[in-house]
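Ticket #4471: structure output looks truncated?

Reporter: J.K.
Steps to reproduce: submitted the chain below (60 residues) through the standard prediction queue, then opened the result file.
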Amino acid sequence: MSRKECCSICSKETGDGIYLLSVYICASCEKEMIETSTDDPKYQFFVNQMSKAHRSMILS
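Returned output as attached by the reporter:
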């Protein structure tokens, strides 16, 4: 049984994902981030979410 973590992008709890700089990202967000081009408005959302997650790590 895998441990569930809260995704730093979508806030859903999943058991399948990765840690990037100690920030947990679920598999579906990881896939979407990889497939999103830089000119897509969703790209900026991902940048903002990663920035927030990274800042919260630094303050902890």
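Triage note (M.O.): checked the attachment and the full token line is present. DSSP finds two helices and four strands in the chain.
Status: closed, working as intended.
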